[in-house]
Design goal:
mainly alpha, two-stranded antiparallel ribbon, 16 helices, 2 strands, metal ion binding
Length: about 375
């Protein structure tokens, strides 16, 4: 726990320092830019830091790294890479809330709603909602730019050019996969009807893998490992662990998106139902429903103004279908597969033990 707390502190300190540097550089633009930077500070002051932790453990799986001493050049570049993932993740969440029309994030107004409120309070011309969307899109773009700068700093500072190049390639691939995965998610929501059961499960799984699973665990591990000079065998071992944990991570997220406690998750319970997310959970739930019940389920799913009673009815339908138990079994199987892959993996034993613990934390979380 000491190391986890220490790492979280190092990550937050690095993020704060980098944001302060950007604020200073942008100071000549005047006070009008302050709300944009304030939102960046606020948004990046929270979060679970799972991706940053996986990046650091990816490095430590290949090469020792002391977190307790001074921040030397080696630790600094690892922290920059970890922070790059946090900046990118923040940007992705901000854009995701715009796409999904989500009003809240982590128990506070989503960034586009915060900017819309600023517009209304300031008495500016034009539409507050449009200003909110514009502000959120631009802040997300800005954070992606800063993420790229951090990754460039991490990859340019080391002597291992092959490893640095591999880390950059993993980062670039991750960004492309997330964007395309997000598009495929949006595309699924727009389809007039579900595909047949088998094809729909394949489509839902494809979105899960590319929008979230690979970028949540596998990519951070590979980036950290590459910076440490991982061999091809070590990269394969990190990927063999990372992908199933990432799948389990997102399956847990899908359960929370339907059944999560708003007081804990900071987002409305049943949000995935009002947004019409065709997740693996939803796909499995409707698969065995009688025809009439399936038609009612499909008709309600994605209705933005579902009332509490309708949300509870859909939640009950999903529970009664047995889909929750099947998804829990899938989570357990994926975590077991991942931890089993570490038994013969050519990585440091202490890092393997910490990866096992982090896999449990990320897949058994309540928010």
């Amino acid at each position: 726990m000491h190391e986890t707390t220490r790492l979280a502190g190092l990550i937050q300190e690095r993020i704060t320092d980098r944001l302060a540097e950007h604020r200073q550089l942008l100071e000549p633009l005047g006070p009008d830019a302050a709300p944009l930077l304030d939102e960046a500070f606020d948004f990046l002051s929270g979060g679970k830091r799972f991706r940053a932790q996986f990046a650091v453990l990816g490095y430590r799986a290949v090469r020792p790294l002391d977190l307790d001493g001074e921040i030397d050049a080696e630790l600094g570049r690892v922290l920059d890479a970890a922070c790059a993932l946090e900046f990118f993740h923040a940007a992705a969440l901000i854009h995701d809330d715009v796409i999904d029309r989500s009003d809240t994030r982590r128990g506070r107004p989503a960034v586009h709603r915060a900017f819309a409120s600023l517009h209304g309070q300031s008495g500016w011309r034009g539409a507050a909602d449009h200003f909110g969307l514009a502000g959120a899109i631009l802040l997300g773009d800005l954070l992606q730019s800063w993420a790229d700068e951090l990754m460039q700093s991490a990859t340019e500072a080391g002597d291992d050019r092959r490893g640095s190049r591999a880390a950059r390639e993993h980062f670039n691939r991750m960004r492309s996969e997330v964007a395309v995965g997000q598009y495929l998610d949006v595309l699924e929501e727009q389809q007039p009807a579900f595909a047949d059961d088998r094809e729909q499960l394949e489509r839902s799984t494809r979105v899960l893998v590319y929008k979230s699973a690979k970028y949540s665990v596998e990519a951070p591990l590979l980036i950290g490992g590459a910076l440490a000079g991982a061999t091809e065998e070590q990269e394969r071992a990190l990927a063999a662990f990372g992908l199933p944990v990432g799948v389990a991570f997102q399956l847990r997220d899908d359960l929370l998106g339907v059944f999560g406690d708003e007081e804990v998750t900071g987002k409305p319970s049943g949000g995935d139902l009002t947004e019409g997310k065709r997740t693996v959970l939803v796909t499995l739930a409707r698969r065995d429903l009688p025809t009439t019940q399936r038609l009612i389920f499909d008709d309600l799913l994605g209705t933005g103004d579902l009332d509490d009673e309708q949300i509870v009815m859909l939640q009950r339908t999903i529970r009664d279908s047995g889909a929750v138990e099947r998804v829990e079994e899938m989570i357990a199987r994926n975590v077991e597969r991942a931890t089993r892959s570490l038994r013969e993996a050519p990585i440091a034993e202490d890092a393997a033990a910490r990866l096992t613990l982090l896999a449990e934390r990320t897949t058994q979380r309540s928010h």
